[in-house]
Amino acid sequence: MSDFHCVEGWSVLGCKWEGISIKYMLERIKPRESATSVTFECMDGYTTSLSIKDILEEGVLLAYKLDGEYLEAGIGAPLRLVVPSKYAYKSAMWITKIVFTSTKEIGYWERRGYSDTADVWRNDRYRS
User: Fold this and answer.
1) Whole-model pTM?
2) Tens of pLDDT, residues 69-105
3) Rounded CA gap, 87 and 89, in Å?
4) How far apart are CA 44 and CA 19, in angstroms?
5) Which positions ≥6 away from 65 have C-beta within 8 Å?
6) pLDDT per residue over 111-120, tens digit each?
7) Which fold would CATH assign to domain 2-122?
């Protein structure tokens, strides 16, 4: 269960996501020690990236269900990232590729002025 926050100021509270924990996945994949970040690439060309530290936070997962139903295309099917402590532009939809990198890549919205940290609790929406 987690809340879902949009950078535009609205939220959906109490979302019940089901999927694969990123932490569980990383325990099995074991990226190279040089990897400090991860970039998520999507079917529509969208990208975003997070630090390894960020994706190891509680509740971060690759979701395939929301509130007991398989995701529909409009909300990210077949697989979307869920990062509860970040604004929704970090919760990429339609994931096709996950790339571990030694340098942080800048994603679609971050190149257009949005904050790379996207921290909901600090209201960090836009670059200063």
Assistant:
1) 0.89
2) 999 999 999 999 999 999 999 999 999 999 999 999 9
3) 6
4) 21
5) 17, 18, 19, 71
6) 999 989 898 8
7) Sulfite Oxidase; Chain A, domain 2 (3.90.420)
Rounded to whole angstroms, how far apart are CA atoms 91 and 24? 18
Closest by CA to 55, choosing from 78, 32, 35, is 35
* Residue 20 to residue 18: CA distance in whole angstroms: 7
- Matching residue, tokens 């020690």: 33
Enter the tokens of residue 58.
């509680």
For the chain, domain boundaries: 2-122
Structure tokens at 4: 């879902």
113: alpha, beta or left? (left if phi > 0; alpha if psi -120 to 50):
left
What the block records as the tokens of 27 is 């325990």
